[in-house]
Amino acid sequence: MLADEGKTKEQLINELAEMRQRVAELKVSEAERKRAEEREKQLQEEIHLSSRLASIGELAAGVAHELNNPLTGIVGFSQRLLRKSTDKTVSRDLERIHNEAQRAVKVVQNLLTFARRHGLKKGYADINEILGRTLELRAYELRTSNIELAVELAPDLPKIMADFGQIQEVFLNIILNAEQALTEADHGGKLSVRTRKIRDYIEVCFIDDGP
């Protein structure tokens, strides 16, 4: 039996099957192209973030060094004045100055730790300590961006063998991504951070309510 243009039914069926195969291949190629574009975009964002972190590190090192000496002086002098003060109101104000200066010194030390470039240096590290010190680096920005921070750290987590600086950079990347997502939403939001032990593993969870 002959069909269109003198082709047999069997030839038309085969041609239809070939056409469907080509359409399927085109769809696969299109999906692969989209995946490649998405991966390219992701890599560009990671490169941008890496450059941003490098710039932050350089800036942090300079600022930290400039602040370290005057802050150390404030801590020392406020402590000396506290020992000499006999006025309760003055002592309370001096204690507040002393405590805030100590907190600022801690932030500066965290900045120096983050900014310091070093090779891979593994040792026993406390995940909660790394996480806490990383969160301190972004505490001010989170507050001013109206982002509520909820932290739930499991006590008595075992120490792990890791490079402090590299783990801190990973945590900072995640926090920055969450912060950016919440800031773009224009209304702040909430960032929840949690650690817990699951059998032989330590789980670190970051959850934000951004888009």
UniProtKB/TrEMBL annotation:
The membrane-spanning stretches of this chain are: none
Protein name per the record: Histidine kinase domain-containing protein
The species this protein belongs to is marine sediment metagenome
Look up keyword Nuclease and say if it applies: no
Q: Which Pfam families match?
A: HisKA
Q: Which Gene3D superfamilies match?
A: 1.10.287.130, Histidine kinase-like ATPase, C-terminal domain
- Where would one find coiled-coil regions in this protein? 2-53
Q: Which UniProt keywords apply?
A: ATP-binding, Coiled coil, Kinase, Nucleotide-binding, Transferase, Two-component regulatory system
